[in-house]
Amino acid sequence: MKTLALLVFSILTASLLYAQKAGPIPELSKQLNQYFSYFPTESVSLITDKLNYKPGETIWFSAFATDENQQPVSPEIQELFVKLYDKKGAPVLQDIFRLVNGFASGDLLIPDDLPKDVYFLIAHTSSPTAAPEITTRALRIDPEYSNQWVAETSLKDSISISGQKNEIALTLSDLSGEIQKNEQLRYQLMNGTEIFEKGKLKTDEKGKAVIRFTLPAKTNRESFICKISDSKDEWSKEIFLPTNLDQVIVRFFPEGGTLNTGIPARIGFTAFNPWGMPVDVEGTVVNPDNKPIILVKSFTKGLGLFSLMNDGNQKYKLVLSGKTGQNQTFDLPDPKPDGMALSAVKSDAGFISASLIFADKQKHSIAIAITSGNKLNWAAEMDINGIGRIKIPDENLPQGINLLSVFSAEGMILAERIVFVDKKQQLKLEVVPEKNKLQSGESMKVKVRMTDENNQPLSGNVTVAVSGPFRNDVSGHQPEDCPSIGSELETPYSVLSGASKGRIVNPVLMDVYLIANRIRGFNWETIKTFKPENAKALAAKAKDFDAQISHFIAANSLKYSVENTDHQADRAYFSNNPELFEKTPAKAKPNTNSLDRQHNLLSATTNLLDVIKILKPYTIINNQIVFNGSGNSINFQGGALFVLDGQRLGTDISALSIISPLQVDHINISTNPADIQKYTGFNSVGVIEIFLKNGKMLEPEAKKENANKYQDGFRVPNVFPGEQPNLKHDTRTTLLWAPNQKMDGPGIFEFTVTGGKVVSDFMIEVHGISRNGRTGCGSSAFSVVK
């Protein structure tokens, strides 16, 4: 071996290393391939036609499943599980679609009666690893009634302080933006489900109001929420309140993986609240005598860096002093007296520069490897005289995330560092519509061109969505195509992209992000000690995956709900498309008679008709019940429908003769059309629902839905409907959905889009992946006019 203190390396091929049969690299490479053959790491990129839906609409989606090397998953993996979860982690829709070469597309029909809320679309293969690694897309489902309210709120201070007066300012309007004056509102301040303050307020002539509240001195470790509702509790909105009482989760990431006695180190850190939201923190690192060592402050929400040297085996800790996490303390990692420090930067074009320092300043034999996924991309073995600096050429390294690892001669991991190799490789998608305006019913051609950074054509696949901006939060719609690293690393890329403008990321901030990170599902110790005979035992220890997903969503739903806020319609959009915004239907009035009163009536009579008459007066016509004020006419000769535990008995009162009042638990009587239509569409008089004490409720007949087709156990995707034959009824807000379209030869794809009845701006969004694995997106816009 060669003794090196400062050396520029050339690429050493794997065959050369293996031929030497020296050092740990051959065995590490073997273990790497063997481990991932048993435990492949897979991720799914998920695209939807939009982010906001109405009940009764269809969610159109496209998915691309890749392995640990960012390549399409094995053809043997064919199952893609797609599920829609509510905020409590319960699935409300699910199906299995077939993956072909890693691609799948499909659709889920949203039930007409699905409540307004934020839901979570999940897609994973049959062999997932862990719930947090699964793609999660937050979708808002909202019927968008013309008179529903929108409350724009703002906190006086970004952090609410316990024991002090805090304020929330709100402006109330309807969906069209019309100010709601002099409206009575209620509010509740809650810590989890515990209400600690409540009151009433009224909007002024400008639709404005202020909520003043005082936080308690202690927290039950749940989130603080302010819930605002109308006086009838038919509308509500929840506002998340960041407070000084919130617990903070701080993680430290020494560069290279360890702190070493007597060696200066850069320490990256992340800071999140318990609900997965990044937070700003500041504080001081103190020694065992509480003497300040260094001030610490996050660079951007959730991310920071500081430098530190521990001269001895001292216990340092970080004490937070800002409003967030005030007085909370966190122990720093203990230093190692005989470890090795590693720092790395991408300093020169074409090279990664790395510095290595041993704490004991002695000579050591080491091996260096650079990996991505399960591939060994570069390796070398050498001697280091205490301190060394190397420059590693990136010519044979793939673009994106790479892991630089240093091992002892015996194969023990000494240090590791994530590096990002940016070769300026791009996938560019140019979207050129034939026109910038269309009239309803008019069509035009749109051309998409896929090229590399040198404008040379590329072959690949694209997914096209054409939808209105009101149904799409364009700023946060689809997955980002700047460094494709979000799915590979533990710390989410959003902490970095949220601090950048556009797609330009500060290189210093990028370096901090790489230090304060780990690669998902990758651990050298686990890989090195893996044996095939232990594979089944390791797999058996894994928890039920569906339960993991449910728990993950329930624990993180607040984060997504806060990010997915209410939005108003543009005034022109609202006035041009009245058919999209119906009025809120009248709320069905429940039976006003108390259960206690009903129980007394039922126990004191032998005739069920007498009880019903007391609950709601009626007249008997043609042996049928007609409620007072809803008399039959020549056209309507029916009576109220009797329903026993969900089973229809008809309208003839003789049906009640077999039912003893002593068997009945309670009765619900309704003349509301929505209640009647649960059982029949041919009754205009009413419904009398009778529930027995020991009865089992039978579900009403299921509503007729689209008949989905299946083949070999897989859902067959429905075809996206083309332009409607009757323009009058073409109120689609998604005009086109074309998943997984092939682009060959010149890298050009052409399609036709037709304007519907909806008058609006429309976005053309194209997401693509080239044959060599590059990803990118492009967009353009046009308008549909009257």
Secondary-structure blueprint of this entry?
Blueprint lengths: L2 E6 L5 H7 L4 H14 L4 E6 L3 E2 L4 E9 L12 E7 L5 E8 L4 E7 L7 E9 L9 E7 L7 E7 L9 E10 L9 E8 L2 E9 L5 E7 L9 E7 L5 E5 L8 E6 L4 E2 L4 E8 L9 E5 L5 E6 L5 E6 L8 E4 L8 E3 L3 E2 L3 E6 L5 E8 L4 E10 L2 E19 L6 E9 L4 E9 L6 E6 L3 E3 L3 E9 L8 E8 L26 H4 L9 H9 L8 H5 L6 H6 L4 H19 L7 H6 L18 H9 L4 H8 L2 E4 L2 E4 L13 E4 L2 E4 L13 E7 L2 H4 L10 E6 L16 E3 L2 E3 L17 E10 L4 E7 L5 E11 L4 E11 L1
Parallel strand pairs: 1-29, 3-9, 18-25, 33-47, 38-41
Antiparallel strand pairs: 2-4, 4-7, 5-6, 5-8, 8-9, 10-11, 11-14, 12-13, 12-15, 15-16, 17-19, 19-22, 20-21, 20-23, 23-24, 26-27, 27-29, 28-29, 28-30, 30-31, 32-34, 34-45, 35-44, 35-46, 36-37, 38-39, 40-41, 42-43, 46-47
Description of the structure:
The chain has 786 residues and is mainly beta. Among the domains are: 43-145 and 543-563, Macroglobulin (MG2) domain (Immunoglobulin-like, Sandwich), CATH 2.60.40.1930; 150-234, Sandwich (Immunoglobulin-like); 595-692, TonB-dependent receptor, plug domain (Ferric Hydroxamate Uptake Protein, Chain A, domain 1), CATH 2.170.130.10. Helices cover 12% and strands 40% of the residues. The chain has 11 helices and 47 strands.
